[in-house]
Amino acid sequence: MYHVMKFQAPFERLKEYNSSPEIILYKAIITQAIIDATNISDAPRAKTLETDAKKWIFSNSDYFQKICYIAGIEPSFVVKITKEAIKLNHKKLEFNKKPPKTVSTYNKKQLIKKMAG
Fold this sequence. Notes:
- The protein is mostly helical.
- It has one domain (9-116).
- Helix 1 (21-37) crosses helix 2.
- Helices cover 64% and strands 0% of the residues.
- The protein has helices at 21-37, 44-59, 62-71, 75-97, 108-116.
- It contains five helices and no strands.
- The longest helix is centred in the last third of the chain and has 23 residues, at 75-97.
C-alpha cells in the first residue's frame, strides 16, 4: 500500500478540461510525479518512485520544462506545489506518529490534585 496525500486545490489547474490527448497525458505525468514525490512509505518501490520524481521535478531539466509548457503549466508552479505538498505530507506523518495522551502520560500527582480540587 502506498501512502500518499489526497490533493485538491493546487490540482484544480491540472484538472482543467482539454480535448487534446497529448495535453491530458502530460498533465497526468506531472500529477503522478507530484504524487510520487510526496511518498511517505518505506516500501522500496515507493522510495524509488519518490527519488525519481524528485530528481525529475527539482532538476528543472529541459525535458521537465518542455512537458510543463506543453501541458500549459509553469514549471515553477509545479516545483512550488511539490515542495508545499512534501512539507504538508511530512507534517501529517509526524502528527500521526505522536502517541495519544493517556492517563499514564500525565504526572499522577498532578492528576490526583486536579481531580480533588
